[in-house]
Write a structure and sequence with these properties.
CATH architecture of the largest domain: Alpha-Beta Barrel
Structural class: alpha/beta
Radius of gyration: 22 Å
Strand order of the largest sheet: 2-1-5-4-3-6-7
Mean pLDDT: 83
Helix content: 25-40%
Number of helices: 9
Oligomer: single chain
Number of strands: 15
Order of helices and strands: HEEEHEEHEEHEHEHEHEEEHEHE
Strand content: 15-25%
CATH superfamily of the largest domain: Glycoside hydrolase/deacetylase
Length: about 350
Amino acid sequence: MPRALTAWVAVGLLMLVIAPPCAAGPAPGDHIKPFALERLGAEVMHWQPGKAAVFSFCAFWCDTWKEQSQRLSAAARALNGLPADFITISVDGRWSERGVGKIGGQVLLDPGGEFCQSLGIERIPYTAVVDTEGQVLYATQGIARAAVIEQVVRESLGPEPAASGGTVYLTFDDFPSGTAGPSPSRADDLDDRLLDALRSAGVKATFFCIGNRVKQNEAVLRRAVREGHSVQIHSWDHRTDNPMIERCAQAIKDVTGTNPVLYHPPGSTEFVQVSRDRLPVTVIDPSDYLRPGNKELLRRVLLAAKPGNVVLLHAGVSGTLAVLPEIIRALRGRGFAFEVLSR
């Protein structure tokens, strides 16, 4: 048995002997404060309250975790598109790669368990559900039932909030959605129709561009800038390992004459300045690219919208285009204004 694994097994057996009947750790009513941990892959995630979150503290070699991961995956699928994050925190480091693909959401590393210890967690797996303020609503050591997690998260979101005013930011990934070719495609038509809908509503949005589509879609990029929208970077070819940010920025500048200042990594809810500083925003990700249906997409956006939120949508999705006017009307009806996202 590997030395590190032997040590964890010994610690686990010792905990079973000395731990009190009720495991220590965050309890309902406690708050989880902002923290930063390394992601699997060496990037750092800065977490802060703003969305409901399901935290799972685990070691991937643990047999109990294997069962727990299935329950969490089921809950994540059931809650997909709602404003709730699933965050798995691995304490063992060496085996962390075994957790990749086992559950949606972020996989963070806490080798040695220092962060767990700071929260008073003595035994793993440990699951905690927090609300938008970071308050713990539910916590348990051992295996948590998927149905319980789903219920707590749904209850934490509550009813659709009343009118509150403030600013929200509409953003569209994967722009332009059209591809190169001598004749317009259906995606090209959707891009122009998207700009038509925004112009009709008098709303300015922020578009995050795929760099290798810019040159072949000059007209729609220039139109977006001419009509007051912000054009930013979404990687060269939708890859995160080599986004080629400078190349994207140059392609956008060559076509539009503007200098992009923001980068939104594909598959992420983080927005960073080209200088690599993180933009402190809360993101609503209704997973429109999964085509949840018009009513459900509208419900997801309105349920989560608060002043200062970024609404993360996608170009080239016909369902998003169909419900966009209703999203704008409903948010305006609650007192929200729209602006472009900037540094």
